[in-house]
């Protein structure tokens, strides 16, 4: 355990590489579960493992005991997992969607009683959904539809039917441009990103789907970066926040499409510059929960990021970044618990799961 002020960090060593971590939507009022994508370098096998988290592992000393992380079940993946997302089908199942480097997308449906994988659905084994690695998937709230993008330049929509998956090719640029990130903005809209810090906004209700683009010619001639992660706030779908190469974090407001707001990276005055890849970014709902109603619609809400150089931090527009955690290895993945936004899980490159807990009394103000 490591602590910094009121922050508490617990590390849980694993015997395999941790490729992705995600909170599962609660199966009951008293249980908390975590899904992890693990990769065994010794035999080149991959799996999704479900762990239960018991915050009071020692009832006699609840303030001094380390939370207990216990394996519950495991699902073997046919190839290495490239991304993992979770959601919930109301009153039915908890759902996990994952993509692989072999071009497939899989859905796992968790039994809410015994916390096991009750059903697994996969895209066509004879015909991969993508001709190359699937970069990332994003699962829509409600768990019925999933977007996948890949190195082959395809954007696919995967829908859950009765015991089957239905697929639709939304766009195919035949490999001329690879996609590396995707995020739902609404039931019909989503954003994609790729090389050169380029972004695209799609609306499935429009002919052709593509309605707006941000070309990566704004960063003072430096357009060699890659978009690794996109997040869109549910109440402000017009603003996307983006994490990418060379420590770059920026926001794209559809109301001023050609003037992205640079939050971190080369050229941001008065801030320390991160130089490594920003692997994942999420709106920090813990930091913003007390002030979102009074915040101007033009102000970028605080965002959390994790990076190749081992930093887990929060960036707020116009302020220096706050480093919550600094590790000696890369932090490859993060997820903020939507039910308990003070709690964060992260995947550490040195084969560990980290759980960071912040004060719950009030939302943080940075």
UniProtKB/TrEMBL annotation:
Keywords: Nucleus, Repeat, WD repeat
Cellular component annotations (GO), alphabetically ordered: nuclear pore outer ring
Compositionally biased region (Polar residues): 51-64
Location of this chain's protein in the cell: Nucleus
Region of interest called Disordered, as start-end residue ranges on this chain: 51-72
Protein name: Nuclear pore complex protein NUP43
Organism placement in taxonomy: Eukaryota, Viridiplantae, Streptophyta, Embryophyta, Tracheophyta
């Amino acid at each position: 355990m490591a602590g910094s002020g009121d922050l508490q960090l617990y590390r849980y060593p694993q015997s395999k590489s941790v490729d992705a971590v995600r909170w599962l939507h609660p199966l009951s009022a008293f249980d908390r579960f975590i899904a992890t994508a693990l990769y065994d370098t010794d035999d080149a096998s991959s799996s999704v493992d479900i762990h239960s988290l018991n915050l009071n592992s020692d009832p006699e000393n609840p303030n001094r005991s380390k939370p207990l992380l216990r394996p519950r079940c495991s699902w073997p993946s046919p190839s290495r997992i490239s991304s993992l997302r979770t959601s919930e089908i109301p009153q039915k199942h908890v759902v996990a969607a994952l993509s692989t480097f072999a071009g497939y997308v899989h859905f796992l449906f968790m039994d809410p009683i015994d916390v096991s994988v009750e059903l697994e659905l996969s895209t066509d084994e004879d015909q991969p959904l993508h001709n190359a690695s699937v970069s990332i998937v994003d699962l829509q709230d409600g768990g019925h539809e999933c977007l996948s993008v890949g190195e082959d330049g395809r954007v696919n929509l995967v829908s859950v039917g009765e015991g089957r998956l239905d697929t639709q090719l939304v766009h195919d640029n035949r490999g001329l441009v690879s996609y590396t990130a995707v995020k739902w903005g609404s039931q019909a809209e989503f954003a994609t990103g790729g090389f050169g810090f380029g972004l695209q906004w799609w609306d499935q209700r429009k002919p052709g789907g593509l309605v707006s683009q941000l070309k990566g010619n704004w960063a003072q001639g430096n357009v060699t970066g890659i978009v690794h992660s996109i997040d869109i706030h549910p109440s402000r779908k017009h603003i996307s926040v983006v994490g990418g190469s060379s420590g770059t974090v920026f926001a794209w407001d559809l109301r001023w499409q050609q003037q992205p707001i640079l939050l971190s990276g080369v050229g941001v005055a008065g801030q320390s510059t991160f130089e490594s890849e920003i692997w994942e970014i999420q709106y920090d709902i813990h930091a913003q929960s007390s002030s979102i109603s009074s915040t101007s619609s033009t102000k970028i809400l605080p965002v959390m990021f994790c990076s190749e150089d081992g930093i887990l931090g929060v960036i707020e527009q116009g302020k220096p970044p706050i480093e919550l955690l600094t590790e000696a290895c890369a932090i490859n993945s993060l997820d903020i618990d939507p039910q308990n936004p003070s709690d964060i899980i992260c995947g550490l490159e040195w084969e560990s799961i980290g759980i960071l807990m912040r004060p719950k009394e009030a939302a943080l103000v940075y």
